[in-house]
Amino acid sequence: MARRPSNDTGSRPVSMADVARAAGVSQQTVSRVANGLPNVNEQTRQRVQAAMQELGFRPSYAGRSLRDGRYHSVGLCVNDVTKFGNLTMIDGIASAAREHSCAITLVEMSKTEEFSLAEATRRMAALPVDGIIIGMSRMAPDFETFDPLPGIGTVIVTMYAHPRVTTVDSDHYGCSLLLMDHLFELGHEQIRYIGGPSFSVDEQFRRAGWQDALERKHIEPTEPLEGDWSANSGYEAGRYLAEHDRTMTAIYAANDQMANGAIAALRDSGLRVPEDVSVVGVDDSLDDFVAHNELTTVRFDLHQRGREVFEHAVPEAGTAGKTVVIRIPGQLIIRHSTAIPRS
Amino acid sequence: MARRPSNDTGSRPVSMADVARAAGVSQQTVSRVANGLPNVNEQTRQRVQAAMQELGFRPSYAGRSLRDGRYHSVGLCVNDVTKFGNLTMIDGIASAAREHSCAITLVEMSKTEEFSLAEATRRMAALPVDGIIIGMSRMAPDFETFDPLPGIGTVIVTMYAHPRVTTVDSDHYGCSLLLMDHLFELGHEQIRYIGGPSFSVDEQFRRAGWQDALERKHIEPTEPLEGDWSANSGYEAGRYLAEHDRTMTAIYAANDQMANGAIAALRDSGLRVPEDVSVVGVDDSLDDFVAHNELTTVRFDLHQRGREVFEHAVPEAGTAGKTVVIRIPGQLIIRHSTAIPRS
DNA sequence: ACGGGCTATGTTAACGTACTCATAACATAA
DNA sequence: TTATGTTATGAGTACGTTAACATAGCCCGT
Asked: Is the CB of B150 inside 8 Å of chain A's CB atoms?
C-alpha cells in the first residue's frame, strides 16, 4: 500500500496541510492560527485548534527556519562540560539565551584532546545556529591563522585576543593583580604560586598576572608550582611549600579548590592560616562544598560574561560584527584567609 | 536596488545553487561534493570545493532537515544548569550524544519556579530535536495527567514512574538502602537524616529509602532535618544534632556537600568522625573540592544514565517506544567516615 | 557497427513554512 | 446606488536540500 496520499496519519509528521485538510481550511489559515495572527474568525480558530490537538500537530522547525532564515539558537562548543569554567559558561549563556527566547545547541568536543577552531567552526556551522561560541580553554593549534566563517557571528571565549574574531572572557589576568595588590597592601612579598595545568589558558594568564605583579614591585618570582585544579593537587603543593619554603608568607592558588587543599596542607604541617601564611584563590566556588568558607578570592560575574558572549555571537540588528576584545573584571572578596604577615 | 538576482553575495547566505553557479556545475553536483558521494570527476570536485571555500558556503541545516526529516539533535530541558544533578545529566547525555554524532539542544526553564511537563514539551517540540528529555527535579503539577506528544520520543529524568512515559534515573531510593545496610552492618541503629529541600524529587526518594530501611529493622525513625544541599546547611544541621541528640551514632546526609558540613560541625562540637559518629553522603562529589576526601558515599554511573536516557529518547530503529522504568543502581564507596559505633 | 554497462552530470520533485498578493463578503459613507 | 474600506480567507511562491530518475558520453566485447 506504499505511501498514503497524505490525509491520514502515516509515519510522516503532521503538517499544517494535514491540519488544514482536517479543519476544512487552507494551510495559510492554519499558519495564522498557529502563530496567533489576527484576522481569523473565532469559530475557524477553534476548529483549527481542535484539529491541531486531534492530530498532534507539531510545527516543523525545519520548515520555519528554512522560510525565515533564523534558527533562534546559538551554538556552543566546549571540550568538557563538567569543568568549572565551562559549566559557568553554559550557565551564563543559558541565562542570556533565555532572555532572548533562544535555545543553546551544545556540542562537546573531545574531553582530552585539543581541537582546531576550524574544525569546531565547521561542525557548528552545519547545526541550527545563528551564532557560534567556542570555549577555548586550551590554545588551539590554528588560533593565529583562523578565519571565522563569513556571515555568522563567531565569538571565542578565551583571554587571547584575535585580530579577526571577537574574544570575551573573565579577566584571568586582572584577577591576579587584584589579589596580589591585596597581599601587597597587607605587607606580603614572598608570595608563592600554585597554578593549574600549564596548557590551560586561564592558568597562563593567572600566572602571568602573578608574575608581572611581583616584577612590578621588583620582587624576584619564585618557582611556580603546577597542580591540576583539584584540592588534592593543592594539598600536595601546599605540603611541599610548607616543608621547603619557610620564608613565604602567602600562597596564591590559581583556583579555590587548590587553595582549599593548600590550606589543609599548611594546617597539617603545623602552620596557621592566616596568622602564619595567607592563602588566596580564584572563582569563589567553595560555598556549596565547604562550611564557613573563609577563603579570600575573586568572584567573576559569569552572567555578565554570558550576556556579552551571547550578544556578540548573535548581534541584534545594528550591533553588527566589529571585532572586539572584552575582559570582564572580577571582584575581590576579602574573607579571613588573609592577614598581615608575621613580623 | 532592491534584491539582487542571486549570483552575488547579497545578505542571503550562500547556498549550493550559488556555489554551483560559481563552479559552472549543477546544484546537485555541489550536493554530491558536499556529502562526499562518489561519481564526481576529480577536477570537478576540486573546482566545486574551491568555489565553496571562495564563497564561504555553509550547508543549510534547515534545508537538510526539511529534506530528510531528522535533526540529529536531542532536546534537553532542565530548570537550572548549575545544580549538581542537572550538570551531571548534561555531561552524561553529552557523551551519549557525541557517540551518536548528535548535538544537544538545551533549554533552561525558570531556575526557581516549577514548570509543567506540557509547557516544557510544547517548547521543546518546536525546536530541532529528534527526542525530548525533561529533567524533573521537582514534581511537575501535571505529572499524572501528562501525555507525551505522539511521534517524538520523550523521556523524563525522575524517580517517579509514569504509565505513558519512559522515566530514567539514578536509583535515589536504592542508594539509601546501600548506605543504611552498610551502617547496619557496622552496628548502627540511631541514624539521623539530613535531607535536601523537600520539594526535590531526589530528596523525597533518598529520604524514603532511609525511612523504609529503619522501619524494616523496626527502628522508629527520628525527625529528619531539612537542608538546602549546601555545606552550610549541613553544618547547621550537624551542629543541631550534636547539641540535641547524644544517642545518635550515625548521620546520613542526603548529599556529600551537606555531609561535609555536618562533619565539620561535629568536629567543632568536640565529636570525632568516625569514632563517635559515622557520617555518610551521596554523589561522590567532593574529590575536586576537598583534599583527602574520606567520606563514605554512593557513586552513580552518570554516563550510563546519560546513555540510557539518550537511547530511549532517540530510539534506534526497532527499539521503538515501549514505556519503561529504568533505575540505575549506585555503587557504595566505603572510605573512612564510617566505623563501628562507640560501645 | 552496435548493444550493454559503466561514469559523470543534470533535471525534477518534495519536504513545511510564512510572506505577498488576490479575492470575496460585508459594512459604511457619500 | 455606488465608491471605499475592512475583515476573513485562499492561492502562489520561495527558502535549500537530497533522492530518484534521466541523459549523455565513453569503453568494451561481440
From this structure: yes
Question: Can you name the residues that pair with B107 across neighbouring β-strands?
Answer: B77
Q: Give the nucleotide nearest to B12 (CA→C1').
A: D15
Alpha helices in A141-200 (DSSP H): 174-186
B6 pLDDT above the threshold of 80:
no
Range 162-221 of B in CB contact (< 8 A) with A: none
**Those residues with Cβ within 8 angstroms of residue A264's Cβ, 6 or more apart along the chain or in another chain:** A231, A235, A238, B290, B291, B292
Q: Angle at which helices A84-99 and A302-313 pack, to 10 degrees? A: 60
CB neighbours (10 Å) of residue B168? 26
Chain mean position to CA A187: 35
- Which chain A residue's Cα is nearest to B148? A56
Residue B190 CA to residue B222 CA, distance in Å, equals: 8
Using the structure, give the distance in angstroms from the CA atom of B11 to the C1' atom of C10, rounded to a whole number.
Answer: 28
Q: How far apart are CA A152 and CA A73, in angstroms?
A: 12
Look at residue B276 in the predicted model and tell me its pLDDT: 97
Give the nearest partner residue to B56 out of A94, A126, A150, using CB atoms: A150
Phi and psi at residue B69, to the nearest 5°: 70, 10
For an interface test with A, which of B79, B81, B124, B230 has the most A Cβ atoms less than 10 Å from its Cβ?
B81
Mean pLDDT confidence for A246-268: 97
pLDDT-derived band at B231 (thresholds 50, 70, 90) equals: very high
**Interface with chain B: mutation pick from A290, A295, A302, A335, highest number of B CBs within 10 Å:** A290
Phi, psi (rounded to 5 degrees) for B50:
-60, -45
